[in-house]
Amino acid sequence: MFGLGGKIKESDVLDALRTVEDPDLHKDLVTLKMIKDIKINGKNISFTVDLTTPACPLKEKIEADCRKAIKDHIPEVEEIKILMTSTVSAFDLNKKMLSGVKNIIAIASGKGGVGKSTVSTNIALALASKGAKVGLMDADIYGPTIPALLDVHEQPMVTDDKKMIPLEKHGLKLMSIGFLLKGDEPVIWRGPMVAGVVQQFLRDVDWGELDYLIIDLPPGTGDAQLTLSQAIPLSGVAIVSTPEDVAMNIAVKALSMFKHLKVPILGIIENMSYFKAPDTGNIYHIFGQGGGKRASEKLGVKFLGEIPLDMSIRSGGDDGKPVVFYDPESEQAKVFQQIAGNLAASLSIEMMSMAF
Ligand SMILES: Nc1ncnc2c1ncn2[C@@H]1O[C@H](COP(=O)(O)OP(=O)(O)O)[C@@H](O)[C@H]1O
Ligand SMILES: [Mg+2]
Predict the structure, then answer these.
(1) Whose CA is nearest to atom 6 of ligand 1?
(2) Residue 62 β-bridge partners
(3) Same-domain pairing of 285 and 186
(4) Which atom of ligand 1 is nearest to the CA of 114?
(5) In terms of Cα–Cα distance, which of 130, 53, 29, 39 is closest to 81?
(6) What is the pLDDT of residues 191-219, one digit of tens each?
(7) Is 0.90 surpassed by the pTM of this model?
(8) Distance (Å, rounded) from C-alpha 136 to C-alpha 15?
(9) CA angle at residue 324 from 318 to 325, to 5 degrees?
């Protein structure tokens, strides 16, 4: 038994916490250097657990595990105070291009209309609600919908040194080609032009300090997506798809493209997975069941979660009132919170695998 009879020492606390594993990262908290600021005052101890993301879905479990480990290993402890904090680590490659932006996460899809923009927006809001610093870039220059989804229609200001200031809404920093285009005339873009605009959105926009920059990519696997994924230092990509086979097959194609480009795949998000009848509560799998899960198992990538086909998600989008911000306690918002947490955790796992 540690420290029995004598004084509790810092090494007793560390030895106890060495038995607590981060369930995602499969290493103990001491090895992961997450334990900070241990203070011992007689039989009372306090310490900080510094997680890799404020959106960590296992925060409560890790805290409870720490408490139990201390009680089991140092029974004479009377009071345990744990402060849970987080520091998002930075993806190495970003330092060259964007010093203040720690991670760039692309949200991609095989085809349009699967809800990529809706998912990008709600995930960005979910991460911000946990305290992360988040930017959202609309790179879907064929159909920029972020301005409508968040009801932001101003033009960004330009500083003296020619940097665009991102617009802000609900704590998100925003940039969209939609802010810069006038009227509804269609723009004909070729692949390299798309990549050019997006690179400009990285270089010439004053993003400041961000934990996560979420990029809503144009749908598909054409020239534009290819050039773009090579031109910007992506920390990872998540693929959004609806569950039916045809859509999933196209999503898998997109996934293969990113794999080929060596962009870490953070997982598959299935949208419009089921419909829950508001009157009876019955669940209908309109587009079939389990497509996303099957595809992710087959490919060995994470399944980040499923989002219902839901009126409030649709109307929230159309009215510029996304459900995560306007109805945060709703079942729908909680689904997005969960997926955002899984996405952030998947990125932490990816980064950890590079670090160790
Ligand atoms: N889970 C959902 N439930 C209901 N409607 C949805 C859902 N996800 C997206 N939509 C709606 O589907 C349409 C397409 O979504 P959008 O996010 O613009 O797709 P994409 O960016 O892939 O083209 C929009 O009208 C949006 O409100
Ligand atoms: Mg879109």
Answers:
(1) 314
(2) none
(3) yes
(4) 22
(5) 39
(6) 777 778 888 888 899 999 999 999 999 89
(7) yes
(8) 42
(9) 85
